[in-house]
Amino acid sequence: MTVRVALVQLDVSSHEPVAQRVTRTLTLVDQAAKDCDLLILPELWHVGAFDVEAARAHAQPLDGPLVEALSGLAQERGIWLHGGSIAERAGDEYFNTSLLFAPDGALAAAYRKIHLFGFEGGETVLMSSGDELFVVETPLGPTGLATCYDLRFPELFRALVEGGATAVLLTSGWPTPRIEHWDVLTQARAIENQTWFIACNEVGQQPGIQLGGHSVVIDPRGAVVAKAGADPEVLYVDVDPERAAQWRADFPVLGDIRIG
After folding, report:
1. How many whole angstroms separate alpha carbon 14 and alpha carbon 53?
2. Given the DSSP bridges, would you call strands 107-112 and 93-101 parallel, antiparallel or unpaired?
3. pLDDT in tens, 90-138
């Protein structure tokens, strides 16, 4: 049985007011949710992945209005909703937190990004790093969560596989100047871990940064099933969750791991 997945590749250009972008995005999610079982949004879409000051100004707790709205949409449409990531405020700390909602609106996972990008700048100035990985049972099977810069750290994805993952959902704000790295690394992570790899990026202009798009769905053999371009779009893909187990049985490379 296939699972219909929708990747919502948003324009997060900084000229658009945050409140307007949130309203526009929630409307788009409501429309796209009519034709999918699972929907995923990009990283920090409400403020834009590279706008640290907007993240500071518009951070919310996990019981705030943005989480409540996403939960309500998941419940109303009866879908699994990966709400991308938001700037989470928790007391005096801030986190880049990915949110996964079950069809009843329950928050199934809140993954705080472990690898923060910026080399002593960018989100490292504001955010604290998370320390917990998540593998959640979804219609895709056991599903791991990761965020953007995590993509460069293969040990994280191997840990998700050790936790049972046969699919990975990655939310991202990856820039155009390094989009070739995105194309290679998303495919590599799928190949080396024999997982479905579903990665949703964003487009548009942030302060000094162009976002690169190329949201992609890659099967456990490493074949690119579908890829978006560099403009806003909703990418729909039918995913067969059994394909990971089939490929692992046909080519049992994971059984030969000797280091780690």
Report:
1. 11
2. antiparallel
3. 999 999 999 999 999 999 999 999 999 988 888 999 999 999 999 999 9
- Over residues 231-253, the pLDDT tens digits come to 999 999 999 999 999 999 999 99
The catalytic residue among 36, 88, 113, 202 is 113
Considering the candidates 43, 88, 123, 202, report the single residue annotated as catalytic.
Answer: 43
Q: Is 162 a catalytic residue?
A: no
Q: Catalytic pick from 36, 88, 123, 148?
A: 148
Identify whether 113 is a catalytic site residue: yes
Distance between CA atoms of 97 and 89, rounded to whole angstroms? 10
Q: 55: Cβ–Cβ under 8 A, 6 or more apart, which residues? A: 44, 47, 87, 94, 123, 126, 127
Residue 200 among the catalytic residues: no
Q: Can you give the residue range of the structural domain that contains 192?
A: 3-256
Q: Are 4 and 236 in contact (CB under 8 A)?
A: yes
Tally the C-alpha atoms within 13 A of residue 230's C-alpha that lie toward its C-beta.
11
Q: Give Cα separations from 65 to 18, 30, 88, 108 (angstroms).
A: 14, 16, 12, 17
- For the domain that residue 234 is a member of, what is the CATH number? 3.60.110.10
pLDDT reported for residue 203: 98
The domain total for the chain is: 1
Please report where in the chains the tokens 């964003």 appear, as a residue: 202
